[in-house]
Every structure is written in structure tokens, then in C-alpha cells.
Amino acid sequence: MDATRLIVTSRRALAASGDVPQVLAEVWQAQALAQAIGSRLAVAGPPELRGEALGLTELAGRGCGVLTRPELGPDELLAAQLTELGDARLALTRLGGLLGEIGIALVGIACSADDEGTYWQCMEAIDAADESRDRVREMLRRLADREEELPAGPQDGLLPEVYREPMLPQREAG
After folding, report:
1. Phi and psi for 69 in degrees, rounded to 5?
2. Fewer CB within a 10 Å sphere, N or C end of the chain?
3. How far apart are CA 88 and CA 121, in angstroms?
């Protein structure tokens, strides 16, 4: 399954989760997915993204490491279902949104935590999600810089000159 579909699936699961263990399981899933996407970009992504993608892989792995690994069946692990990246810009944009959402969910859990262990677990996971999101933003910035450097042409979605005429008839003077 492509990265964008998996991210959407993860966002929906996070939104539908109810109690603290469910939310933490979905946060872990999202971090594992971010780690898999970062790994895929580091290996097969555009060269200018590879360093940041490696950083994303490490940070998301840290986010998984501070959380208790949920009991998941082999077909329930979203990261294992990643088969292709698809559109890197779209995947990174949606991944950034997902990382922001897990940060918000973790803040909610930390604020209502009854024990210090859960609180600190959430704080470390928030930090990892925030730093992961920073990496995603940097990769998006690099993609934008790369597109600015490329020459524009029909292959970039621009219409040939003949199609740039106004679509509405112009009034004649007189």
C-alpha cells in the first residue's frame, strides 16, 4: 500500500481511538510508519532528502522506543504494509499532519496522566514527534527548492503558449 493511504488510515485510527492504551498504540503505529517512510526515502528517495530522511528514521524509531509496543498481529502493523512511497510531497505533507496530531494526542494524555511514568513517556514521545515533524518540514522545503531550480516547461504541467489565450471573448473597441 502506498504511504499516503497508510497515513490516512493511521490518522483515522488515531481519531477513532478512545482510551489511553488505544491512543498510545496508534501513536506507536504512527511513529513506526514515519520510521518506515523515512527509511524508504533514505534508500530510494531524491538524493537531497536522504540525510533528513535518515534523521527521520532515527527520530521516529526513538518515538517508538519510548512507548510500550502494542500487541499487534502481522497484518495489523501499518509500517509493514508500506510497499511504495507514491508522491513524496503529498506523503510528506500528510505525514507532517499525522505527526502534529500525535503530538496533540500525547499532550492530552500527559496532562491527564495519573502516574509519572506515563507522563514522562508522553513527554519523550512528544519530543520525538516534534523533531520528526521538523525533519519532514525540512524535506518539504528541500523539495520546494529543487522544484524552483528546475526549468519550467510543458513537462511541469504548464500549458503550451497556444492555450494561454483568454477563455472569454474580448469586447471589440468601437
Report:
1. -70, 125
2. C
3. 31
* Count of beta carbons in the 10 Å neighbourhood of residue 173: 4
Cβ contacts of residue 136 below 8 Å, gap of 6+? 56, 92, 95, 96, 99
**Cβ atoms of residues 61 and 155 within 8 Å:** no
pTM metric for this prediction: 0.82
Who contacts 174 (Cβ-Cβ below 8 Å, separation ≥6)?
none
Which of helix, strand or coil describes residue 115?
Answer: coil
The answer on pLDDT for 37 being more than 90 is yes
- Closest to 61 in 3D by CA, of 34, 21, 22: 34
Calpha distance 25→36 (Å, rounded): 17
Give 67-89 pLDDT, tens digit per residue. 989 998 878 999 999 999 989 99
135 pLDDT higher than 60: yes
